[in-house]
Amino acid sequence: TVMKKLLLLLLVSLSASVYSQDTFLNFKIFNDRIIWQKVYETSFSTQEVIDYFKIFGNISIAEQTESRIIGSSSGNKIDFNKYKGSKIGNTIFDDDLAYKVIIDLKDKKYRVTILDIQFTKGGGIMIDGWGNTGNRSSIIDNKYIKDNKFKNSFSREGSESLDKFFIDKFSVKKLLDIF
After folding, report:
1. On the CB side of 152, how many CA atoms lie within 13 Å of its CA?
2. Gap between the Cα atoms of 94 and 103, Å rounded
């Protein structure tokens, strides 16, 4: 019928528009890599932000200045019940999350950039949800980028939960009440 054909045409055009994006939520493609980037406004001082990430950030700090923290994080788990996402068809998100992080600090704001996002299982680096292991190809860039655009599957396979996880993970909260 005409209605079915119209609906099918609409679905095909929607999927094509999702496929051609180079940004999705707080994710971007930069130099053929998926990065997650968000600027946070804060009432905390730069030093309070630094202290917060030193204590609660689960970051191995490689370099720190008064305006930047560079490090990495590993052993993170995404709680799909908490972040209300979907991992349909992709068990990779059951595994440990690791990434590199850059936190740029300015007065009353900071920018978090996450890159080299990967999932590991039992020390092996994951390529897919079937347990195949490898090295560099485990970083999600290789799975979700084609022709410098996000593949359609990126929006379906846990990216919303990952976005919510990073938003929550890097929102600085009050350390302790002053006594």
Report:
1. 8
2. 26
* 177, burial (CB in 10 Å: exposed 0-12, middle 13-18, buried 19+): exposed
| Residues contacting 75, CB < 8 A, separation 6+ | 58, 96, 97, 98
For residue 29, give both structure tokens: 């493609």
Distance of alpha carbon 95 from alpha carbon 77, whole angstroms: 7
Name, in order, each residue with C-beta under 8 angstroms of 143's C-beta and a sequence gap of 6 or more.
127, 128, 151, 153
Q: Give me the mean pLDDT over the 33-59 stretch.
A: 92
pTM exceeds 0.85: no
Q: Which residue has the tokens 């990434």?
A: 99
What is the per-residue pLDDT across 140-171, written as a single tens digit (0 to 9) for each?
887 888 888 888 877 776 788 889 889 999 99
